[in-house]
Specification:
The protein has a three-stranded antiparallel β-sheet with strand order 9-10-11, with helices on one face. The chain has a two-stranded antiparallel sheet with strand order 1-2. Strands 3-6 form a two-stranded antiparallel ribbon. It is about 35% helix and about 20% strand. By secondary structure, the chain is an alpha+beta fold. Helix 3 (about 60-70) crosses helix 4 (about 95-105).
Length: about 200
């Protein structure tokens, strides 16, 4: 039986791929590169650099901004049963897709808008903030969401860790660990109270 010699060949593209570092986002199965992290940071901070790109129609730009990072609310069926949790989706080719959809005749009609999204005041910065979705008031106007609606204590989940301690977590990215369940709950409630105060003070400035 003759031996078989296999030689590994790495192309320039392969070497470039090996240099790419991926980072966890906190969402299962979702990782981003250094370049994407930097881009998303600019998006969140509103500091995207000026680039030499062809001028596009205002409606294309508006739709591209809407598609770049899509914050989806909890998904339910007509009977009210939850099908999926809130999610954040990044669309890598948002400008190209927006340009195509506008060419296909899609347009935004504000009179048909029934839901809006707002980021969590005092929450963790970043595109993965699930924020808050809200609708119009009965008179058809858009309200200013109550800060406490973001930090609802009823959303806190408490679990016991393998070492016997307790952990209280809020889905907006804060947690508190203590020796007892009551201490963990008291700790996270105090943390939430502080978050609400900080966000309120920031709005009053």
């Amino acid at each position: 039986m003759s031996g078989e010699i296999i030689e590994e060949v790495t192309t320039p593209t392969g070497r470039d791929q090996e240099k790419i570092r991926y980072h966890a986002t906190g969402k299962e199965g979702v990782q981003v590169t250094d370049r994407m992290q930097a881009f998303l940071r600019h998006v969140v901070e509103g500091t995207l650099p000026t680039m030499d790109v062809p001028e596009v129609a205002p409606e294309v730009r508006e739709l591209a901004e809407e598609l770049a990072v899509v914050h989806l609310p909890e998904w339910t069926n007509p009977a009210g049963r939850k099908l999926a949790d809130p999610a954040v989706i990044q669309v890598a080719q948002a400008p190209r897709i927006a340009d195509f959809l506008i060419a296909r005749g899609w347009r935004r009609d504000p009179t048909l808008e029934v839901v809006r999204w707002a980021p969590t005041p005092g929450g963790l910065p970043g595109p993965y903030d699930t924020g808050l979705h809200y609708g119009r008031d009965e008179d058809g106007t858009w309200p200013i969401p109550d800060i406490e609606a973001y930090w609802d204590v009823d959303d806190v989940e408490v679990s016991q860790l393998p070492d016997g301690s307790w952990k209280a977590e809020h889905p907006r990215g804060i947690g508190f660990q203590a020796a007892s369940k009551s201490e963990a709950l008291a700790g996270i409630v105090e943390t939430i109270r502080t978050k609400i105060e900080e966000a309120t003070n920031a709005m009053d400035r």
